Every structure is written in structure tokens, then in C-alpha cells.
Amino acid sequence: MQELKQASKACDACGSCQKGDKIAPLRRADKADYVIALAGNPNTGKSTVFNALTGMRQHVGNWPGKTVVREEGAFRFREKVFRLVDLPGTYSLLSNSMDEEVARDFVLFGRPDCTVVVVDATALERNLALVLQILEITENVVIALNLMDEVERRGIRIDDRALARDLGVPVVAMSARNKKGLTELAATVDDVVHGLVALKPRRIESIDPSIDQVVRSLVKEIEKEYPGVDNARWIALRLLEGDPGVEAEIRSGTLGKAVHGGLSLAGGQ
Amino acid sequence: MSATDIPIGETACIAALNMEAPEKRRLMDMGFCPGAEIQRVLDAPLGGTIAFRIRGTVIALRDEQTDKIEVTPCKN
Amino acid sequence: MAAEQILSNAASARQQIGGRLHEVVAESLFKEAERIAGRAVIREGESRKFAFDLALDRVLTSRVWGLPVMGMMLAAVLWITVTGANVPSSMLNDLLIGKGHPWLLSIFNSVGSPSWLTGLLVDGVYLATAWVLSVMLPPMAIFFPLFTLLEDYGYLPRVSFNLDRAFRWAGAEGKQSLTMMMGFGCNAAGIVSTRIISSPRARLIAILTNNFSICNGRWPTLILIGTIFVAASAPPAVSGLVAAGSVLVIAVLGVLMTLLVSRVLSRTILKGEPSHFSLELPPYRPPQIGRVLVRSIFDRTLIVLWRALVMAAPAGAAIWITSNIFVGGDSLAGHFVGWLNPFGMAIGLNGVILAAYVFAIPANEIIIPTILMLTLNLAKSGLAQSGVMIELDEATTRDVLVGQGGWTLLTGVNLMLFSLLHNPCSTTLMTIYKETKSWKWTLWSALMPIGIGFAVCGLVAVVWRLVS
Fold it and tell me: Within this chain, do residues A223 and A175 fall inside the same structural domain, yes or no?
């Protein structure tokens, strides 16, 4: 548990967690102050994190793909109500199977105030592919580096600070099933929704030069049409792949509206 | 050589995916990209299904898919 | 319009790039991921954990041991359930039916309750719920935690891996084996889980065949009938094994039916090629025993039990009422059962069982209590052969069924088969409608298993009667 101890020490030091911070699961939340999406690869303990935060008892099993629908729960933290939306576990947001679409559409069009990506720390490399895709879409991201107890047992060490630096978003080392790191996660999410954390999401640069040119000119057009859009590059890439969902958004103009803050599922703001 | 021909326990690197777009996408989304290192770790008891270790996880594929994954020895 | 302009520019650029984009993006994503992970992960020598997982997987999926270990594991779970449930079951039976029922009767009589009210509440509602409790609670409280342990440890994906060749033979997608295993908990949950199957054709096959996975509601029925009928004819020393074995045979038969029906469907009305398969075999995780216990009791045992009680009470009342309204010399239930009886007998069951399956459409859980209620109530009204009302405090399930209902070993065996091969419960049917949005497929998924059930039971009955 070395990492976890470090994490909680860091928490004491930086003052991110105040004394008396407690996560209070809520039975119902008609009005939420913030909407938080919970994304991640299958089998990373996403449902365990969800249950631990919301006090719900969604079935958890050790096999991939058991969450196929969006589950919702809520919790109260620092006097604010957070609605938590558990998305289906996916390896990627690029394909078009039903579960991936549910996840992608919510992160993109649901405009959550923060997206928590639950990551299996024992298979970091593979999990990061999804993290990088989400970072292309939105910058309000917190990485929940889960299963740190398992990492320990395997004799691996993970430098979560280097990871946070590389990704440009906060990383919280945790072990949801041992109820470790949850308060820290909630505190970090709270900081992110209040704009207290500097976010510089890592965006992918290395790409084939001939394609890069095409992408760039399309990005320019999008930025001209929708000033202030923060994921123009991602939208350009989706359009180049012919993603019908994103095309429809462009056509209907919801994309523009969302950019100007019109579309939000959070009722309280 | 295709991924089906990797001896059990051995490692090889993906050279190309010779298949149609949707199937190719699925595989790439799980990390089966050209250049990736794969190790054949398990064969199903009834045959025809092979599990590979790739990027720290174990993923099983049917041999009709692995036939179409071209591999070469890894350059290390 | 600028938006249309962007779209058409994108479309022409797409033509120019061709199909390479996804490949290029995925490749750069993984390269980046590799770089970042490489900086963040410090390996202090690979531990023994992966080696241990691999060694375990080599056994659990081995050519020689993979399948036998799978069967033995399920058999062991069933055997522990059967033998472990014996004592608490008879204790509960003793308490609730042996002592509780006469006690309630005397209370009702002492306050001068009219006989119809006493009958409705005590013989109807109370007895039905008491039976559900004593018959179902102990096996569930043992079976579900054991099954949950296997699930939590990560064994289910290995079963999928082991069986994939068979599912390929059946023309099914690889993930169907996972949805089939979800069905072993609850068919409605299994149906919802078919959303992980991307091809609509393959998904429909998975939905139509999910009913062949024995669900929470049916395990206790099978375990009970296996124990009191099939195992009763075996020597006491091995009766537990025989009971577990008989349930195992039915479960395996369910898997075979899934494969066979999938194959027939994929070659006839749902023609198509099996699509790709990819399945992650997650690392084994030592389950947290305490949490497994708590969760399987709250999420499974109590939910099933509650559903059974909620359904059993009104069903008990309905049975009591229909057995006590007389039209033309026999009760309504008597007429119904009598009308079903010739057909029931022909396929090695009887009218009571078929009537019980009608009463139990809302929940499979209440089959056994319903059968008992009907048998006892009809014995009163004179339809059962013996016609003698036995004292209730001596009434064990087997005595009632053999003595009052005229059951034989064939009835027991065929009930087990019919329990596998009949229509899904109403919750499952509603889920099927919600997922398919089609009355046609909902009706199919109800009638197909019943048809198969009638055919199989009939065949067994014919052969049985020829041989014996």
C-alpha cells in the first residue's frame, strides 16, 4: 500500500482534503449541482467505484462487459450534490457498437462537468488508450488509478505524479474495493468542477504528416464556425471517419450551442 | 507467418492486419496494432480459440481472425 | 450553410485519405500510451502473480482438464448445496409447517374465525409462503454465495473461452456464452446483457436461447426434486451425489439445448455467419468472502425470496379460492386440473403440474409450493387417488406428492426436464419485448421452449413406459 499511503500523505500536505470531508451517498437526487461521468475500460472496477461513492449495490462481477446500460446514482460532498453516471466499460470510443456509443455520446453530448476515467493500474498501457481518447474530447478529466492494491501485489510501482504530469490532468491512486482513496477522488473532482485545478490535457501530436495536413485545415474551418470549441481536432477526426453522430450534431447546430454553455444536464447551475 | 502459427508461449510482433475495416477496427481498439507485441499464452481445450497476452492483458480470439493477423519476429 | 460546407469538405477529404485514418489514429494512440506508461510504470521484477494466473489458466483451460474441471466445479457447488440444505430445510419445515401451521389454526379457531377465512389465510396464504421459505431459503443461501465466489474470482470468462468452439459450431457469437452465464443468475438480466452482442441476428439468437440457462428461480426447484425423487431411489450413502448429479445433468442439458437451438436458428430463420470473437480473460482476483456473502444474500437470495413470497401469497390465495368454489360437483381448480390431466399424463407429468405452471407464470420460484397447494387442496376435494387428507404436521413434500398426487420417478424426472424447457417467467418475457420491440419474437421465445418441453417430456414418457 505504499502508493496509497503516499497518496493520502500528498492529500494531507496539499490541503486538497479538508478535515471532515465525507462522501454521503444519496438515495435520490432530483437536483444535482454537478454531473460526473464514470468511464473506463471493462473490468477496471468501475462499478465498484460507483457503488462505493453512491452506496448503490450495482452487481459487480469479474467479467468484461457487464454494465451495458447507463446507471445513475448520486452523493453529497462538501455541501454539493454530485450525480454520478456509470457508463458501459469500453476499450475505445472510436467504434460504433451499442455500448461504446452510449459511453461516447454521454461524454461528448451529455457535457458532464467532470469525467472520471477509472483505470486498471495493472494494465496501464492498454487503459491509457481510452484515457487519451477522452482527453481529446474534454479537458475536465480526473484519472482514478484503481486496483493499486493489485499493483502492489505484483511488485510493480507506478509513479502517479509522472503520470499526472504527462496526461495534464489529476491522477488519484486508489483501491475502491478496499475503500481507499475515495475521499481523495471526490475532493479532486470537486476541485476540477470548481476550476481549482490547472488542466492541460495531453493531445496526440504524432500522426502521419499527409493526414495531419488534412486534419489541420478541417480544424481551422470548425474553429471558425464554432469559436471557442475546445475539441475541434477530435471533431475533425470523427468527421473524417464519417461518424454519423458527430455529423448530425454539426447539422443540427447542437455542437455550437453546447459550446456556448446552453446544453447541460446539471440542473443546479 | 500468421498469429495462428505462433508456438504456444512464444512472442511475435504484429506486421499487418489483413481484414476488412470493421473487424480491423475492433482489433485495433483492443491494441492489436501493427508493431504491437503479442504472446500466445493459452489454447482453448476444444481448439480454434487462442488467447494472447497483449499490453498487459489477456485477450482471446478465434483462429479465423488470427489467420488474418500477420506477424514477424520482434526486433529487439 | 457553413455546417454543410464543413461536412462536404470532410467527405471529400475522407475520399482522399481512404480507410487509413482509423489505423493511423489507433496506432498513434497506442504509441503515445506506450510512451506514457513506460515512464510511469516502474517494474521491480515481474512478480509471481502473472505466472500464477497463467499456471492456473493452463489447468482451467487445458485440453485434458479444462472441461472436466468445469463440470466437477459445478457438481461440487451443487453437492454442497444439496447436502448442506438438508438439515436447515427440515428444521424450517418443522418449525413453520409442523408447529406454526397447527398453532395458527388453533389461534384462528379460538377467535371464532369463519372457516372460509381460516382456509384462505392459513391453508392458502400462510402455507404457500411457509413452503417457499423452508424449501427455498436454505439451498439459495448456500448456492448463490458459492456461485458468486466463482464469478468474482474471474472464472466465467474462462468458461466462455473453454466453450467457444462449441458456440462457433452453433453459429453463435462468442459473447453469447457470457450472456448465457448471466442467465444462470436471472434470465431477465441475461437478456439485457445481450446488448454486448453487436450483430442483431446473433443477439436475437442469444435472447431466444437464454431461457435454457437455469435461473435463480429454477435452481431450488431442481435441487428439491432431484433430492426427493431422483436421489431417494439411490442408496443413502450416495444420495447427495445423485441429487447433485441429476441437477448437473439438467444444467448441462440446458447448455446443449442452447447450442443446438442456436445452430438450428442460425441455419434457418436467423441465417448468417458467426461474427468475430474477442474476449478479455481478466486477472484472477481473490474474492472478499465477507462481501460476497453479504452481496449474494442481499442481491440474490433476498430478492428471489421476496419475489417468491410476493407471488406465492396471492397464488396461494388464488389456489385456495379456486379449489373451494364448486361448480357441478368439482372445484374450479379441480375442473382445470382434470381437463389438463390426460395431456399431462401422456407426457409423463400430470394435470397439477401443468396447472401449476399456469399459476406460476409470474415467477418460476413458486412452482413447488403451487404444486403442493394444488395437490393438497384437490386431495380434499377428492381428485387425488388416495382421497385421504393426511395430517399436515406429518406432511413432508415427498409424502404429499407420492401419497396424494400419485407421483412416480418419471413424474420427478419429467418435472426437472420441464422446469428447464418451458416458457420464461413474465418478467423475462417483458424484458424480451423491451429489448426486441417485437411481439413476434416475444411470442417465439415463449412458445418455442414449451413446444420443445412437451416434445422432450413426451418422448421420455414413451421410452420410459416401453422400458419399465
Answer: no
